């Protein structure tokens, strides 16, 4: 089950790298503006805010990716494996909370929250099952 958790976590990390690209590198592009429902004027004004948010998404992806590597290569009884589990909980948990906050504060963003949150939630569930199974 740890492999399933790692795959789901890796997918979550990839989604967050994609969000980083949109928010940091492509924020003012017409396709990105359509995704986020912004105008050219709003995108220009909010560029630095979006880029800052994009960096947070990249950092969550990095934390999660390092956790994936550790849980897959470390001895299950080692401290490295425990560190990998902790990084997965931190990364996936933060992604989950961000998605929950998005949907709680703006129901029109339910699709975005689902895209952002489905892999982290499923990854946390799989990690919990793997941990309980020993």
From TrEMBL:
<keyword id="KW-0472">Membrane</keyword>
<dbReference type="InterPro" id="IPR009732">
    <property type="entry name" value="DUF1304"/>
</dbReference>
<feature type="transmembrane region" description="Helical">
    <location>
        <begin position="110"/>
        <end position="133"/>
    </location>
</feature>
<keyword id="KW-0812">Transmembrane</keyword>
<feature type="transmembrane region" description="Helical">
    <location>
        <begin position="86"/>
        <end position="104"/>
    </location>
</feature>
<feature type="transmembrane region" description="Helical">
    <location>
        <begin position="55"/>
        <end position="74"/>
    </location>
</feature>
<protein>
    <submittedName>
        <fullName>DUF1304 domain-containing protein</fullName>
    </submittedName>
</protein>
<keyword id="KW-1133">Transmembrane helix</keyword>
<dbReference type="Pfam" id="PF06993">
    <property type="entry name" value="DUF1304"/>
</dbReference>
């Amino acid at each position: 089950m740890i492999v399933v958790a790692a795959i789901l976590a890796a997918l979550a990390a990839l989604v967050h790298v994609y969000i980083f690209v949109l928010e940091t590198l492509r924020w003012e592009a017409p396709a990105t503006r359509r995704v986020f429902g912004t105008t050219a004027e709003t995108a220009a004004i909010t560029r630095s805010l979006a880029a800052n948010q994009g960096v947070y998404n990249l950092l969550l992806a990095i934390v999660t990716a390092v956790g994936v590597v550790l849980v897959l290569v470390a001895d299950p009884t080692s401290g490295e494996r425990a560190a990998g589990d902790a990084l997965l909980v931190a990364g996936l948990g933060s992604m989950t909370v961000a998605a929950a906050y998005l949907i709680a504060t703006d129901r029109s963003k339910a699709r975005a929250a689902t895209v952002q949150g489905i892999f982290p939630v499923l990854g946390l569930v799989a990690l919990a099952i793997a941990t309980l199974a020993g």
